[in-house]
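Suppose a colleague, Dr. K., hands you the sequence of a protein chain of 125 amino acids and asks what its three-dimensional shape might be. Before reaching for any lab equipment, you can write down a predicted structure in token form. Begin with the sequence itself:
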Amino acid sequence: MADSTVVPTVSTVQTQRRGRPIEQRILLSQAQPGWRLSRTVETIDRVRLCPAGTDLNPALVKRLAERGIKRIYVEGNPLPGPSIEEWDMVVKRHRLRFSRGRAVPFLAALEKIVETALARQALRQ
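The predicted structure, expressed as tokens, is then:
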């Protein structure tokens, strides 16, 4: 499996994998006709529904939704969101702040809540 950098699933996700162009993980409901899949779409049972490189159209989006697909990876960066570098810096600072409190269950839960809030805030920018 290729190395990748991924931001949490709360938001749209931008990924840069070695040797591959930038891709973005989005909700299927955000998909627009003409966008191209950057990864194969599979069910939980690993049944392939669409190969990478397929151009999206309304009928395909509807069929994927009927099969229970919630998120897909598309080529490029069609939706606004934080860059990989910006998000990495935010996450590093956040994890450093909570590093001494991870052994305390309350603080570990609070760390996850704050990280989710940071991801939502980054989307609004």
